[in-house]
Amino acid sequence: MTSLPGPGFEALIRPHTGDLAEIAPTARGNGSAFTGLVECALGPFFIKAVPNRPGGRRDSLVREGLVNPFVQPISPALRWRAEDEAWLALGFEVVNGRPSDFTPGSPDLPAIVDTLNRIAAVALPDIAHDWVETRWGRYAGGDAGLFRGGALLYTDIHESNLLIGDRDTWAVDWAWPTRGAAFIDPAILVVQLIAAGHDAEAAEEWASGCQAWKTADSSAVNAFAAATLRMWRERVERFPDTTWLKAMLVATQEWVDHRGIVVE
Q: Which domain of life is it from (predicted)?
């Protein structure tokens, strides 16, 4: 059985899991110290855990737990929370889904768009009122106000986080939900689709299936595209050997070119 992280972790979660039978860490989960499927007497559960110390990783997991009741059944349900001086852990129900396919011609694309529309239909919960979206604003200069709004944003849109089942779809890993302009989630989808092989026109055509995209101000979308390009430029400069960052930069540049934007 694969070991769990850190001494005392098994004792922390055992009241919620019972005896453990098998632990299968996931390949992704960069924001958590541990993510994995745990087969156990009271489960199974999908567990996310971080060291219990102040900072972004703990704040992110706390936020994910707080938003969960409001985004079910789009997100798998949170079943339990465990915390001690060393660790914070969340245990989620296990859903039977596979990563979605964003490539051109994929039969998953309508379900992906539908999932974003389901997210957009969720009313902003009171707990999220102060979770103002700021990540792109620092790259937008005087246009940062265009990204403000009253929508609950998911923002972590990629193939591994949108799961496709036989009858249902789920958006998992609500690592940093925020409050902002509703068009931001479809705009993130555009970049992801381009990175998966769509040309920019086709990617925007899929995004047009999202109501929030249809009602977006084109100047706000242009400002967001420019800010996104500046963001990826900065990250590639900091981590020049990270392949996926370069892919996102290339995809965003294609989108900016398609929209006829010149970005300094």
A: Bacteria
What is the per-residue pLDDT across 139-159, written as a single tens digit (0 to 9) for each? Answer: 998 999 999 999 999 999 999
- Distance in angstroms (rounded) separating the CA atoms of residues 203 and 36: 32
Euclidean distance between CA atoms 189 and 105, whole angstroms: 16
Q: How far apart are CA 176 and CA 164, in angstroms?
A: 21
Distance CA 89, CA 49 (A): 4
Whether the CB-CB separation of 29 and 39 falls below 8 Å is answered with no
The superfamily (CATH) of domain 9-92 is Phosphorylase Kinase; domain 1 (3.30.200.20)
Cα-trace Rg, the chain: 19
pLDDT at residue 256, rounded to an integer:
98
Return d(Cα 53, Cα 205) in angstroms, integer. Answer: 43
Contact (CB, 8 A) for 139 and 231: yes
Largest CA distance in the chain: 59
pTM of the model: 0.94
